[in-house]
């Protein structure tokens, strides 16, 4: 006998306003702070008791603080740019907390929560936003590629990594983060073709934050995005991306299925970018205030607070301690950014190639000689 | 001494007559056998052995997980190859035809070329992208292009174009061994021409980024690469019959270009002709002419002369022989460089720039 959607932990399929199709969405913690404890997905996160949930809550607060610090540092002229992640904490922390060390991550430029969860030091993260490097951390040490700026290009890289895992049989898998705008890119379609054809253990984690800069998701797709991977033969689940328990449950399930040899998996986490696209953007020009107010009520952090308070936990104490940790991270981050003052012209030429290259050597010599002459002349 | 005596016949046995295609096949076979991290990826390269049969038999020998038929998506092929490098593989990618590489352009230019710098040197990009290129093969549109200038202009890539079966073999093995990404351009109209190839001479092979003097001469330097190496040597032979001594330099590597070898040649001939199938504007000839003028200005007795395809889309097969430089057009270029006459085609004011 088939279970009703609610018994499967999905919301009743309500018609999608875009096209009227019915889209069940995985939900375990409602915006009102009500937690579902029965059902197949609820069982997948039964180990996350109040104390564990408080830790995730705390991580989301820290992420929001890092994000605010990034914006502040940009406003003060210390960073070249910042891409705010406010509102997407449950999607990012939820997914990252479910990952294992053997899951190689391919992140986008907005995935600060994912990157922080991988243990990347703020000083390494901020090198890129400072304009001191195009990357930051050692991708092999962290098992995480540098953030991708070309929209959707990283999905192919993740699929290639997972194809390699399938070829060499040494285990491991990959997880790629992408946004709603990326789903229109040819590379993302090609990535799904290759993933399906090679049965690659790759998880596509789509953060549908409703907007690609100014363009609403309706412009990218006339069907709910969760439907699209199915046409490629990839299992796909839509979750409430502001519900950290649902995100963890769906991610765990996807990884388990990949481990069991079921091939590629896709999660659409429905969320909202509460801030601007980047510090160079002005969302008031394209986004209605009502929409922002609507999503503010669906905030990923508030609902956990409501739930934990209802459970009799001292959320103020948790917030205090999270705030202290966040202050520490923010201070470290600020110091790291401000400390990045070295501008070595030789760096221009250093890592263009891995092996000696006569043109680069020649141009470096020429330019260093020119700079030396300038100094002599001064 | 007895060991040497034994080694000698074995070395001789390693030299055999191979077509360009078979020389590439032999190098791929060696690389696959020698390193399990090496993979071949491309369209129709498995059972079929590629549309030119360059990979013939390799899947049977090395298996479907080492010689991989991919879906028909060039960006997908190159993009997944990037991911394979993160897994520790050294992928060799085949693009079926020159004109099919453009869907992969973003992955090549924005990812393959830049990931080493993006990671401050922590991620190396040991990838070879093999592209059959060039025309004179009676094909439909998109099957006869010479896209080398696009890739030469992209920092982070190396670009090579072998002109002989021996180079095809050795340069491919060197490209595979390189930790940098290499665009390896195969002159497809030469695939079935053969020569003696020593498949064990790799340790004695010249560096991947070096040019070679293929024929010594004293009157004029002719720089060629890929499919025009043979055409250039034919032209030099014909010129010799007329008493003109042409030094033929096979550029081999287009990025970086070996200006040292080329400049040494021009310093004793005083004249330069550079020939290629690709369009003229912003091409190899432009870069070679500028760099040699910078380096050898006082040695030059004539402005460098470019003999190239025209600045047009590659023409229909019926007309391609007008477009692709042949022996006679190269000879005409040589005559111009020697200041003999204006000849047919462009007038001398265009060739000599502002010199009069």
TrEMBL record, chain A:
Cofactor(s), by name: thiamine diphosphate
One Pfam family of this chain: E1_dh
Stated name of the protein: 2-oxoisovalerate dehydrogenase subunit alpha
Family matches, as InterPro entries: Alpha-ketoacid_DH_E1_comp, DH_E1, THDP-binding
Start and end residues of each stretch annotated as Disordered: 1-26
A GO biological process held by the record: branched-chain amino acid catabolic process
Enzyme Commission number(s): 1.2.4.4
Catalytic activity: N(6)-[(R)-lipoyl]-L-lysyl-[protein] + 3-methyl-2-oxobutanoate + H(+) = N(6)-[(R)-S(8)-2-methylpropanoyldihydrolipoyl]-L-lysyl-[protein] + CO2
Family of the protein in this entry: Belongs to the BCKDHA family.
Top EC group: oxidoreductase
Reported function: The branched-chain alpha-keto dehydrogenase complex catalyzes the overall conversion of alpha-keto acids to acyl-CoA and CO(2). It contains multiple copies of three enzymatic components: branched-chain alpha-keto acid decarboxylase (E1), lipoamide acyltransferase (E2) and lipoamide dehydrogenase (E3).
Listed GO MF terms: branched-chain 2-oxo acid dehydrogenase activity; magnesium ion binding
CDD domains noted in UniProt: TPP_E1_PDC_ADC_BCADC
Keyword Oxidoreductase: yes
The Dehydrogenase E1 component domain, residue ranges: 59-327
Key words, A-Z: Oxidoreductase, Thiamine pyrophosphate
UniProtKB/TrEMBL annotation, chain B:
InterPro entries: THDP-binding (IPR029061), Transketo_C/PFOR_II (IPR009014), Transketolase-like_Pyr-bd (IPR005475), Transketolase_C (IPR033248)
Gene3D superfamilies registered for this protein in UniProt: 3.40.50.920, 3.40.50.970
Transketolase-like pyrimidine-binding domain sequence ranges: 18-193
Statement: the UniProt record of this protein carries the keyword Oxidoreductase: yes
GO molecular function (one): magnesium ion binding
Entry cofactors: thiamine diphosphate
Coiled coil: none
Keywords: Oxidoreductase
E.C. number: 1.2.4.4
Pfam families, sorted: Transket_pyr (PF02779), Transketolase_C (PF02780)
Record-linked SUPFAM superfamilies: Thiamin diphosphate-binding fold (THDP-binding), TK C-terminal domain-like
Entry-linked SMART domains: Transket_pyr (SM00861)
GO biological process: branched-chain amino acid catabolic process; response to nutrient
Entry protein name: 3-methyl-2-oxobutanoate dehydrogenase (2-methylpropanoyl-transferring)
Lineage, top ranks: Bacteria, Bacillati, Actinomycetota, Actinomycetes, Micrococcales
């Amino acid at each position: 006998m088939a279970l009703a959607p609610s018994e499967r932990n999905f919301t009743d399929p309500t018609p999608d306003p875009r096209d009227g199709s019915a889209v069940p969405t995985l939900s375990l913690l409602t915006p009102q702070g009500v937690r579902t404890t029965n059902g197949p997905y609820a069982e997948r996160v039964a180990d996350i008791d109040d104390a564990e949930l408080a830790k995730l809550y705390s991580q989301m607060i820290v992420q929001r603080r890092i994000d605010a610090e990034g914006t502040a540092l940009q406003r003060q002229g210390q960073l070249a740019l910042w891409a705010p992640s406010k509102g997407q904490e449950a999607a990012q922390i939820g997914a990252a907390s479910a990952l294992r060390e053997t899951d190689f991550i391919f992140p986008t430029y907005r995935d600060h929560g994912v990157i922080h969860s991988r243990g990347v030091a703020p000083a390494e993260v901020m090198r890129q936003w400072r304009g001191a490097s195009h990357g930051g951390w050692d991708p092999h040490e962290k098992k995480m590629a540098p953030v991708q700026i070309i929209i959707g290009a990283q999905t192919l890289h993740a699929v290639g990594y997972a194809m390699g895992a399938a070829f060499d049989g040494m285990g491991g898998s990959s997880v790629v983060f992408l946004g709603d705008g990326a789903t229109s890119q040819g590379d993302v379609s090609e990535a799904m073709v290759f993933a399906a054809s090679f049965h690659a253990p790759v998880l596509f984690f789509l953060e549908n934050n409703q907007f690609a800069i100014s363009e609403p998701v309706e412009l990218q797709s006339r069907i709910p995005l969760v439907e699209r991977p199915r046409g490629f033969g990839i299992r796909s689940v839509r979750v409430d991306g502001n519900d950290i328990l649902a995100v963890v449950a769906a991610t765990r399930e996807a990884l388990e299925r990949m481990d069991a040899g079921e091939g590629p998996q896709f999660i659409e986490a429905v969320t909202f970018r509460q801030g601007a696209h980047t510090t160079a953007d002005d969302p008031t020009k394209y986004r209605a205030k009502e929409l922002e107010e609507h999503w503010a009520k669906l905030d990923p952090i508030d609902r956990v607070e409501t739930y934990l308070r209802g459970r009799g936990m001292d959320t103020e104490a948790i917030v205090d301690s999270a705030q202290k940790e966040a202050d520490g991270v923010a201070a470290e981050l600020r110091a790291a950014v401000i400390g990045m003052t070295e501008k070595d012209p030789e760096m221009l030429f250093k890592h263009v190639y891995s092996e000696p290259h006569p043109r680069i050597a020649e141009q470096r010599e020429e330019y260093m000689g020119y700079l030396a002459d300038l100094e002599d002349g001064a | 001494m007895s060991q040497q005596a034994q080694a000698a016949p074995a070395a001789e046995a390693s030299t055999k007559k191979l077509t360009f295609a078979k020389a590439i096949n032999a190098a791929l076979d060696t690389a696959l056998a020698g390193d399990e991290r090496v993979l071949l990826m491309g369209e129709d390269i498995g059972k079929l052995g590629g549309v030119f049969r360059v990979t013939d038999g390799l899947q049977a020998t090395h298996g479907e997980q080492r010689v991989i038929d991919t879906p028909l998506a060039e960006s997908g092929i190159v993009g997944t190859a990037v991911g394979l490098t993160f897994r520790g593989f050294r992928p060799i990618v085949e693009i079926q035809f020159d004109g099919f590489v453009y869907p992969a352009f973003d992955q090549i230019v924005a990812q393959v070329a830049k990931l080493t710098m993006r990671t401050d040197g922590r991620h190396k990009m040991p990838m070879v992208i093999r592209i059959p290129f060039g025309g004179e093969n009676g094909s439909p549109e998109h099957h006869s292009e010479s896209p080398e200038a696009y890739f030469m202009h992209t920092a982070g890539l190396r670009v090579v174009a072998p002109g002989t079966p021996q180079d095809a073999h050795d340069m491919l093995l060197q490209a595979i061994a390189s930790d940098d990404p290499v665009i390896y351009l195969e002159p497809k109209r030469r695939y079935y021409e053969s020569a003696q190839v020593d498949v064990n001479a790799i340790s004695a092979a010249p560096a991947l980024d070096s040019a070679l003097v293929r024929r010594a001469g004293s009157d004029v330097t002719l720089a060629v690469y890929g499919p025009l190496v043979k055409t250039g040597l034919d032209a030099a032979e014909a010129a010799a019959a007329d008493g003109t001594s042409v030094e033929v330099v096979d550029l081999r590597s287009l990025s970086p270009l070996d200006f040292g070898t080329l400049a040494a040649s021009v310093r004793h001939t005083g004249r330069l002709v550079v020939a290629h199938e690709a369009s003229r504007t912003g091409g190899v000839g432009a870069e070679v002419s500028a760099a040699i003028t910078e380096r050898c200005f006082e040695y030059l007795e004539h402005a460098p002369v470019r003999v190239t395809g025209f600045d047009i889309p590659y023409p229909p097969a019926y007309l391609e022989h007008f477009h692709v430089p042949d022996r006679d057009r190269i000879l005409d270029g040589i005559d111009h460089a020697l200041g003999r006459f204006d000849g047919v085609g462009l007038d001398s004011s265009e060739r000599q720039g502002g010199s009069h």
